[in-house]
Amino acid sequence: MKVFIIIWFGQLISLIGSGLTSFALGIWVYQRTGSVTDFALISLFTFLPSILLLPIAGTFIDRWNRRIALLVSDCGAGIGTLAVALLLFAGQLQVWQIYIAVATSSLFSAFHWPAYHAAIAQLVPKQHLSRASGMVQFAQATSQLVAPVLAGLLVSKIQIQGVILIDFVTFIFAFVTLLFVRIPKPETIPENEDKKKSLLQETLYGWTYISTRPGLFGLMIFYSFSNFTLGIVEVLLTPLVLSFTSSTVLGTILSIGGSGMLLGSVVMSVWSGLKRRIYCILGFTLLQGLLLCIGGLRPSAPLIAAAAFVYLFSLPFILASSQAIWFTKVAPDVQGRVFAVQRTIGLSSLPFAYIIAGPLADRIFEPLLAVNGPLAPSIGLTIGVGQGRGIGLVFIVMGILNMLAVAIAYLYPPLRLVENELPDAITQIVNIANEHEK
């Protein structure tokens, strides 16, 4: 647990630095282009390369020392950040160069996520896995809370170049913390060891492991759909808020949302969630769907801030409960491969969301709720018309889809009963070890 806390703290500092850069670059691109699509492409290039590489990266994570994998991924991400800072100092930074830089960092991050989460399952006792997942969410929440406000202050003082250099320093800090820890090699289950053959076969084994377990497969698909709605909201929140108020208010709203996630992470770290984790996932996802509908109703900063607070307060309970199920049900020696496939499929909907969010808002929903748009005499009477109201309607549609997804998931028995029907992989390893001793 001590080793986990050291790694976690280094990643916390690095996440705050990355949040500074993400907020600053997003505002920089949107203010210069005025295009939701150009803004959304940053998110696309942040995730797509990582998602494409993840299945192969997961296989190498099971072969390599996981500490080395974390060191290499932090190094690569830091280089991408430094390149953006140097271009800014030279006055040569273009939007397409930002896409290349974030795509390069994304390639390295493909190794980071499965290595980090596989290490958690190795280092943390089973009874504390939900708390450890809550701590991971706490780190992300802290970044969302601190980064927007801090970035807004720092940009005015040291310019965007200085903000990105701070991000580079945080990468170095995370790198140094990893130099002083040791992550043990996981125990190998014989039946999984037999599966280790060629690189392609090992990569495909992650898919086979999940697809032959309907409960895990259903959880993965549910996660993927939830990420689709989250991706749409993530891209369109900035244009929605900026359609009726300033970037300063936007930063405040993001920080309020981050404080909700922070509080939720603290509660999750202490409480560990419901005994039936799947009910925690479905219940809070249903609440999130309702909040998306509320957030799209009016161009009101207090309303959106309140919805963002509760929405992000719910997120740690969903993610930590889901991760705890995966940690418990997947054997440690194949977690790199399995987690990589799970994340690849789970996040594959995000690039699609990032691609369609801009055109969906710019070309379809915004014209529908323009002052004299087709929906102005009907839906427009309820949620208003004009700039940003089409995006509000997108939020409402995403909320309804979220609630429908929860209903379908509950009615699918393998998913609803996943914790009962699948044996704990950690218990399986202990039993095998006892057999060897006998």
From TrEMBL:
**Origin superkingdom:** Bacteria
Q: Which residues form a coiled coil?
A: none
Which of UniProt's keywords are assigned here?
Cell membrane, Membrane, Transmembrane, Transmembrane helix, Transport
Pfam families according to UniProt? MFS_1
Q: Which CDD domains match?
A: MFS_MefA_like
Q: What are the Major facilitator superfamily (MFS) profile domain coordinates in residue numbering?
A: 3-417
Its topology with respect to the membrane?
A: Multi-pass membrane protein
GO molecular function term, any single one: transmembrane transporter activity
Plastid keyword on record: no
The family database entries (InterPro entries) matched by this protein are listed as: MFS (IPR011701), MFS_dom (IPR020846), MFS_trans_sf (IPR036259)
Record-linked PROSITE patterns: MFS (PS50850)
Q: Where in the cell is it found?
A: Cell membrane
Broad class of the protein's primary localization: membrane
> Which parts of the chain span the membrane according to its record?
12-30, 42-61, 68-90, 160-181, 216-237, 249-271, 278-297, 303-327, 391-412
Spell out the GO cellular component terms annotated for this protein, sorted alphabetically and separated by semicolons: plasma membrane
Q: Which PANTHER family match?
A: MACROLIDE-EFFLUX PROTEIN, MAJOR FACILITATOR SUPERFAMILY (MFS) PROFILE DOMAIN-CONTAINING PROTEIN
Q: What is this protein called?
A: MFS transporter
